[in-house]
What we know:
Layout: E1 5-13, E2 16-23, H1 25-35, H2 51-58, H3 63-80, H4 84-99, H5 111-127, H6 143-153, E3 164-167, E4 186-190, H7 192-201, H8 203-210, E5 215-216
Antiparallel strand pairs: 1-2, 3-4, 4-5
Helix pairs in contact: 3-4, 3-5, 5-6, 7-8
Amino acid sequence: MQFPAEIDNIKTLKNGMKITIAIEDGNVKEVLQHVYNFIDKPLEIGLEVDAAEREKELNQITGPQRKKIYALFRDIGQELGYNTESMKQEMKNQFCYDNQYEMFSLSNCSKELASDFIEFLIEFAFEYGISLSEDPKEYLDDIERYLAVCLTKKICAICGRKAEVHHWDHIGTGNDRRKYDDSELRKIALCREHHTECHSIGRDSFREKYKVYGIIYNS
Length: 219
């Protein structure tokens, strides 16, 4: 008898190992018809990985991504007077409309879509001055995407307050900032307080302290 299943739990025993398997609903009836015939009898079990299914799983939204999204729903909802479920539907609708996406589920959408949605939620929070319960830069796996969002929205990459675009690379003495082509220079969005601190402790110490840096950015 053969049927697909997943390993649900593994427990090491004193004299062996106990493996618990999970059977899909569609196969339960068939398994129940035969399984009692095999109790206390030796079995030969083959373990194979469904490569296509595994690849699909690896490309799906991760648990940490889902957790971040719901944290953003809560923060935005509390600020705007919506409960989490209402905020979820509102934000998904707006995201799909703005980006021409089909409606999606947060249970099995792709990691890439989840990352785009997180970026959308952060941009929304920045746009409307919504305070976030966690450090904003922890929401995106790609720090450069976060830094680009901060530059676009003119939000301090450290504290989330209103900011200006500042040069991470020095333009050089004697150059006219109004005429100088700074397109190849790295930039970062910092509020006045953190811009002053960056100059005070030095760029390298600032990067080490806050784990941020300038990126090439052209608005």
